[in-house]
Specification:
The complex is a heterodimer of chains A (361) and B (337). Chain A is an alpha/beta fold and 361 residues long. Chain A is built from twelve helices and eight strands. Chain A has one domain: Thiamin diphosphate (ThDP)-binding fold, Pyr/PP domains (Rossmann fold), CATH 3.40.50. In chain A, helix 1 crosses helix 11 and helix 4 packs across helix 11. In chain B, 39% of the residues lie in helices and 19% in strands. At the A-B interface, helix 5 and helix 6 of A face helix 3 and helix 5 of B.
Chain lengths: 361, 337
């Protein structure tokens, strides 16, 4: 199993995150290959869009306008955008509770998301799912659900189906570090490995499962040791470094499409808001307050912007325009979604079965 | 020259269903534990792996949850997988995927996706196997909106409802019972049926009493009705066949005719299928039409025992159903006002 170029530790260690776990590290600009400038510029725009959508939803949650549970992805935009860059038509992507970023990174419409969190018929799940149940088949998002680890075996099945189809497509499973404590994760890794299913497992390790730090839940900080145990090739990258995420993803996806079976990525990142809702939840878990301040200096958006400015790909005006445009798009989408209709009453019984209305009360 | 009719057993009829599906529908595959072994699933899948290849008849690691989730994932991508659990008890490790995933995805995503997964689990009881090898739990699963629950009681249904389950666009739990594997009958030619159009069926008619059951209990009801007929009591026998979503039209109609209902179920009493049958009838039938209070025959609310005398008293039998039926028919005046 090769070490990824994104893995910066001198010795490749499946058990420890090394410096990646240190909030004070990785504040410097990114190492960028100028050949990747174009993709990184569009990735930057996409990360800014995700940030602005999430801030809008956070504001609406705080005002009580959005009521469904929302798990905001602010601070960890890079894994979704980096991986989405290597998803092609025919691939099937699955997410979890914190999946607004996966949806938007794959090209999902901000209006569809903002309508869904308001329970509107025009939402991506036609107002039946809310924040935690998103789907966007045309863009390759086959489903996100909040039962921890639940979509991991489903993604393996989608991978088995892709293998049966024989078109070189793959499945992608996004999940958090908490999900690696579920039996479903281990059953899925074993099954995918044994059946050589084309699946990219992406663990966004943000250290926290709800309120509890990984040091209080697992004996080691890195979940790559599980990939090692299941004989799945793995790589680890700074999940707040879009360039590193792209490099690690590229290598993994090439191996998967070459028929080598599944691959596992651990992308180390940090969420700025609480487990659920708009607050920062500084007082939960271990040293969250000090770490959060340091992790904000590891902002995936500003680090990338500074780096692209340094190599001449981006100028200040452009960056300002990216933010302004994102705000305009989001405000317009929000206004439109706010005026949309709720699902019709019959949706309650007509969408349960094919060809049969569900029984009334 | 008179031809001897060719009869097929319940297990072999299931195999016929699999063979038909694998032959005619390239999107069908089967996945589960023991599919390459002769003893996990009786004679219901014999040699399918050599006939259709081990890429379509997949034996798996000991991962009920993982394999059921994988089948669901493939179902979301255009396949019609059948995931096999050789015993209901072990399937419970996969409940999240069946109840919280497969049954919900259609509604939860606004009707934009369908999950045509069939979960086939085998009820395998008796033989002093005890509490953790004997559950059937159909009532639990029939409680879940979005999950169709199918229980065939005859070889023809075992074959044809399997085919209809797999061709349904909805997730289906298909439960077959090893105690029915001895039944044999002459099978009609295969006809693909729309599961949404299938439901309870009247398998015998009579004026005095309505017997309602599913799976092995429907078989017991038929046997009991034959015995009762010899005693001059004629029964309507209703085989539920599709437990969820439940169409209670036929049982209501029958209850209005006979005025007496005995619901038989090989599952527990509390919140069980027999209770649902009686509730559905009681809500719809004027009590003045009823000649006796409805009754049920179920398992006692206790885990399955191992000791043989206890086991003999645990499961409903034809004798017991006949006794209860006679009491019901003879005792209407003192039990119902």
């Amino acid at each position: 199993m090769r070490a990824s170029s994104a893995d910066t530790s001198a010795e490749r260690n499946a058990f420890s995150l090394g410096n990646l776990a240190d909030a004070g590290s990785y504040h410097e600009p990114l190492l960028i290959d100028p050949l990747d400038n174009e993709a990184l510029m569009s990735g930057l725009q996409r990360m800014i869009l995700i940030r602005v959508v999430e801030e809008k939803i956070g504001d609406m949650v705080s005002q009580g306008v959005v009521k469904c549970p929302c798990h905001l992805v602010i601070g960890q935009e890079a894994p979704a955008v980096g991986v989405a860059g290597y998803v092609r038509k025919g691939d099937r992507v699955f997410g979890a509770h914190r999946s607004h970023g996966h949806f938007l990174a794959l090209g999902g419409s901000p209006h569809g998301l903002l309508a869904e969190v308001q329970g509107k018929d025009t939402g991506v799940s036609r107002g039946m799912g809310g924040s935690m149940h998103l789907i966007d088949i045309p863009n390759g998002l086959f489903g996100t659900v909040p039962i921890v680890g639940a979509t991991i075996p489903i993604a393996v099945g989608a991978g088995i189906a892709a293998k049966m189809d024989g078109n070189g497509d793959m499945a992608v499973s996004f999940f958090g570090d908490g999900a690696t404590e579920e039996g479903a994760f281990h059953e899925s890794m074993n099954l995918a490995s044994t059946m050589k299913a084309p699946v990219l497992f992406v663990c966004e390790n943000n250290f926290f499962s709800s309120h509890l730090h990984i040091n209080l839940r697992q004996p080691d900080s890195s979940v790559c040791r599980y990939a090692e145990a299941h004989r799945v090739g793995w790589a680890r990258a700074d999940g707040n470094d879009l360039a590193a995420v792209r490099t690690a993803t590229k290598e993994a996806v090439e191996a998967i499409r070459a028929g080598e079976g599944p691959r596992f990525l651990e992308l180390v990142t940090y969420r700025w808001r609480g487990h659920v809702g708009h607050r920062e939840d500084e007082d939960v878990g271990v040293k969250r307050k000090d770490d959060l301040a340091a992790w904000k200096l590891r902002d995936p958006i500003s680090r990338l912007a500074v780096s692209l400015e340094a190599n001449g790909a981006l100028d200040r005006q452009q960056l300002k325009r990216f933010w302004t445009e994102a705000h305009t798009v989001v405000e317009e989408a929000w206004a439109e979604a706010s005026h949309d209709q709720y699902p019709p009453a019959k949706a309650l019984l007509s969408r349960v079965y094919s060809g049969t209305m569900a029984r009334k009360r | 020259m008179k031809q001897t009719p060719v009869t097929t057993g319940y297990g072999a009829a299931i195999r016929d269903g699999f063979e038909y599906l694998l032959q005619n529908h390239p999107s069908v595959f089967t996945i589960g534990q023991g599919l390459w072994s002769p003893w996990y699933v009786g004679n219901s899948m014999t040699d399918l792996d050599s006939q259709f290849g081990r890429e379509r008849v997949i034996d798996t690691p000991v991962s009920e949850l993982g394999c059921t989730g994988a089948a669901l994932g493939a179902a979301l991508c255009g396949y019609r997988p059948i995931v096999i659990h050789p015993r209901v008890d072990f399937m419970l490790l996969a409940v999240d995927q069946i109840v919280t995933q497969a049954a919900k995805w259609r509604s939860m995503f606004g009707g934009q996706v369908c999950a045509p997964i069939t979960v086939r689990a085998i009820i395998n009881r008796g033989g002093e196997q005890g509490a953790q090898h004997s559950q059937s739990l159909q009532s639990w699963f029939a409680h879940i909106p979005g999950l169709r629950v199918v229980m065939p009681s005859t070889p023809t249904d075992a074959r044809d409802l399997l085919i209809a389950s797999v061709l349904s666009d909805d997730p289906v739990l298909y439960l077959d019972d090893r105690w029915l594997y001895g039944l044999e009958e002459e099978l009609p030619p295969i006809e693909e049926r729309n599961l949404a159009q299938e439901g309870p069926r009247l398998t015998r008619t009579g004026q005095d009493l309505t017997l309602v059951g599913c799976s092995y209990s429907a078989h017991l009801c038929r046997e009991a009705a034959a015995r009762l007929s010899a005693n001059g009591i004629e029964c309507d026998v209703i085989d539920i066949r599709v437990l969820n979503p439940l169409d209670s039209t036929l049982m209501i109609k029958s209850a209005k005719k006979t005025g007496r209902v005995l619901a038989v179920d090989g599952d527990w009493r509390s919140c069980g299928m027999a209770a649902e049958v009686i509730a559905s009838i009681s809500e719809a039938v004027d009590p003045r039409v009823m000649r006796a209070a409805p009754r049920r025959v179920t398992l006692p609310d206790a885990p399955a025992p191992t000791s043989s005398p206890l086991e003999r008293s645990y499961y409903p039998t034809v004798d017991y159903i006949v006794q209860r039926a006679l009491a019901l028919v003879g005792a209407q005046q003192e039990t119902f006002e």
